[in-house]
Write a structure and sequence with these properties.
about 55% helix; mainly alpha; about 300 residues; disordered N terminus; disordered C terminus
């Protein structure tokens, strides 16, 4: 019988190397996408200007809110609570809770942007839903910076300009709900977020976050449901870790041992040198993967 030879062993680390990603999309495409987001969301400043003026805030107060706060959800929550007759301090607290989510964005963006220390406080003012979504969609650090900067600059300028115009022409515009401008920001954000949900784990976390946010909206103060919805990610990861296939390796996973083919003897080691499995074929007369020599089986000639 011809002697079978094992295939040559691949050095550790070589098998896992794959060619790097190809060149990213052109910078002009990043600028185009960033401008589209900035313009679409910036127009909703009209709705905020009208809502703020209708809530009794002065022109100066309305414009200062957009200049210094610059996060649409928090601004709408603040003026909405005031318009409903709520306490200004309670309204400010709700707006603060909504704005806390930007701190979580900043933790991720600080690594991707890698800006100089003196520039970080200025860039932090532009860390909002839209700039984060555009930045995370880019393949390279250069394009992440371009997307973040162009989106932030376009949105900041247009948001404040339309806030001013909305506050000045509140009576002429009338009911902003009929224009649908307040839905522009969430719609754009969801359109940017949806393509990023590539795995079942990401989709499960997003779905659970939606259920938590919408389900708790009627019973918790403004801003708190958003923070509770953030717990969806660790909850899904915890559940995945406790599932039968969540923590253990499989024959397809790197580093997991694979069993040998029937009749060939011992199994082959995994990609990273993990433990091997002995053969289970009753007709095999060969040793397992770790045995030094062949062991006779029942039925062989003595």
């Amino acid at each position: 019988m011809a002697e079978q030879t094992a295939p040559p062993e691949i050095p550790a680390g070589v098998a896992s190397r794959t060619p790097g990603p190809g060149p990213g999309k052109p910078d002009a495409a990043v600028v185009r996408d960033a401008l589209g987001v900035g313009v679409a969301v910036g127009l909703s400043g009209f709705a905020f200007g009208v809502t703020s003026a209708g809530a009794g805030l002065t022109l100066l107060q309305t414009c200062v809110l957009s200049l210094l706060v610059f996060t649409g959800a928090s601004q709408f929550a603040l003026v909405g609570a005031i318009a409903a007759g709520g306490n200004p301090m309670a309204a400010a607290a709700g707006a603060f809770f909504l704005g806390v989510r930007n701190a979580f964005y900043g933790l991720r963006l600080s690594q991707l942007l890698a800006l100089p220390r003196w520039l970080r406080p200025l860039a932090a003012h532009w860390v909002i839903d839209e700039t984060t979504a555009v930045a995370l969609a880019q393949p390279t650090r250069r394009q992440i910076r371009i997307g973040f900067t162009v989106t932030g600059l376009t949105l900041y300028v247009l948001w404040n300009l339309t806030t001013l115009l909305g506050a000045l022409g509140a009576e002429a515009l009338g009911d902003t709900d009929a224009w649908g401008l307040d839905a522009a920001g969430p719609a754009v954000f969801l359109a940017l977020l949806a393509p990023m949900l590539r795995t079942a784990t990401e989709r499960a976390a997003a779905g659970l976050a939606v259920l938590l946010g919408l389900g708790l909206l009627p019973v918790l103060p403004a801003g708190v449901p958003v923070l509770v919805a953030a717990l969806a990610a660790p909850a899904v990861l915890w559940f995945k870790g406790r599932s039968p296939d969540g923590g253990g390796g499989s024959s397809a996973d790197p580093g997991a041992g694979t069993t040998g083919a029937p009749g060939t003897g011992g199994g082959t080691p995994g990609a990273t040198g993990a433990g091997t499995h002995p053969a289970t074929d009753a007709g095999s007369g060969t040793n397992d993967a770790t045995g030094p020599g062949a062991h006779r089986t029942k039925g062989q000639d003595r």
